[in-house]
Amino acid sequence: MKILVTGGAGYIGSHTVVELLSAGHDVVVLDNYCNSSAVALQRVEQIVAGTVAGKAGKAGVLQAVEADIRDRAALDAVFGAHAFDGVIHFAGLKAVGESVSKPLEYYENNVGGSITLCQAMQAAGVFKLVFSSSATVYGEDAPVPYVETLPRGKTSNPYGSSKSMVEQLLTDLCSSGSDLQASNWSVSLLRYFNPIGAHPSGFIGEDPQGIPNNLMPYIAQVAIGRRAELAIFGSDYPTLDGTCQRDYLHVVDLAKGHLRALEALTQPGVKAYNLGTGQACSVLEMVRAFEQASGRPVPYSFAPRRAGDLPAFWADASKAAAELGWTAELGLDQMMADTWRWQSMNPEGYSEDGSCKP
Ligand code: NAD
Ligand code: WQD
C-alpha cells in the first residue's frame, strides 16, 4: 500500500512509519514540524535500513513533504502526485493545558485541519482514514474500564473537545450516503490511552519542547539530570497508593495497532477502538519501575492535584483484540528500559546534525 501519514515526524507517527516501511508499505509523511524535527525521519530510515536489510521482505519507500494540513493547495498537490490507498492522520496539537489558553489554535489545527484533509481526500477519491483519537473522548464521568459502547462524554478542555468533534464529523461523513449511493468512507477512530516508551534501538522517542507536560518524559528528564525532581500531582486520590492510575502502553505496540486498523478498513463505515493494555498503573509505581530499569534515582515530592486529572482510568481492550487481532504485547519493564535507552542516547532529544550515538 501507499499511505499518507500526516504528523508522521512526531512521536507516535515516527514509530508508526517504522512499522509501515518495515511491512513493505510506501509512505509519504506530511508534517509542518511545529512539534517535531525532520531528524526523526532520518532516524526512521536508519532503523528500517538496519532491521530490514538481509530479511526476505523489502522495505517501503519514505518521502517527506513539509506542509500544513490546513493548506488545501498543498494537500491537493500531494494527492495529485501520489495514488494513496489510505491516510493515517496524526497531525494536530496535543498539549491539554495550552489548549485551554489557546482554544482557537487547537480548534483550527485539530478540527479545521481535519476538515481540510477530508475535503482533499474526497476530491482525490481517497476514503480510508485512520484517526488519532484519545481516551479523553469518554469524558469526565464514564465508568471504568472504558469500553467503546459508551457514548462520548463531557470533555474538560478544548483539546479533548477537538478530538470528540473530529470523531463526530468522521462519523457523519461515514453516514453521508443516500438511498442511491452509500458513503465510500471507511474510518477507524483509534482511542489511545497513555502511550510511552521508545523504539528499542534508542534512535527515536518522545522529544517534548520545553518542560514536559506528561509523566514519562518528565521522569526520564529527572533521571538524566535535566530536572531536579518530579512533582507528583496529588497523593490523596481514592487509589491503591493515593496517586492517579493510568493505562500506559508501549508506543511500538500502539504503532502496530495502526497497521492492523489500516488492514481492517475493508468496508465502508466507522469503527472506534480502544488501544490500551487493559491495566492501570499508579504514578508511584511508574517512578519505582523507572528507577529499577534505569538504575537511577528519581527524586520526587508531592504537589497539589492538577486541575482536570481523573483518579483512574484504563481500557477495555477486547474489541481491538477480537476485531483487529491486536493486543499490547510489551510490558512496563520494556516501556521503562526503552524510554531510558532513548533518553540516555539522546539527552537533549534530536540533535541538529541528526547523529545518534549508541
Ligand atoms: P506529536 O506532537 O509528537 O506529533 C504531532 C505531529 O503533527 C508533529 O510532528 C507536528 O509537527 C505535526 N503537526 C501538528 N500540527 C500540524 C499541522 N497543522 N500540519 C501538519 N503537521 C502538523 O504528538 P504525538 O504524541 O505523536 O500525537 C500524535 C497524535 O495522537 C495527535 O493527534 C495527538 O493528539 C494524538 N494523541 C496523542 C496521545 C499522546 O499521549 N501522545 C494520546 C492520545 C492521542
Ligand atoms: C499521567 C499521570 C498526572 C506529570 C494526557 C492527556 C490525554 C492524552 C495522554 C492526548 C497523571 C501525573 C504528570 C507530572 C505527575 N493525550 N503527573 N507529574 O493526563 O493521563 O493524559 O496525555 O490525547 O488526553 O490528558 O497523562 O502523562 O500528563 O499524566 O504527577 O509532572 O501523571 O497527574 O496522574 P494524562 P500525563
UniProtKB/TrEMBL annotation:
One of its GO terms (cellular component) is cytosol. Keywords: Carbohydrate metabolism, Galactose metabolism, Isomerase, NAD. CDD domains: UDP_G4E_1_SDR_e. The lineage of its organism: Bacteria, Pseudomonadati, Pseudomonadota, Gammaproteobacteria, Oceanospirillales. Transmembrane segments: none annotated. Its cofactor is NAD(+). It comes from the Bacteria. It is an enzyme of class 5 (isomerase). Residues 3-276 form the NAD-dependent epimerase/dehydratase domain. InterPro entries: Epimerase_deHydtase, NAD(P)-bd_dom_sf, UDP_G4E. Belongs to the NAD(P)-dependent epimerase/dehydratase family. One of its GO terms (biological process) is galactose metabolic process. Pathway: Carbohydrate metabolism; galactose metabolism. Its EC number is 5.1.3.2. Homodimer. This is UDP-glucose 4-epimerase. The keyword Signal does not apply. It catalyses: UDP-alpha-D-glucose = UDP-alpha-D-galactose. GO terms for molecular function: UDP-glucose 4-epimerase activity. Pfam families: Epimerase. It comes from Marinobacterium aestuarii.
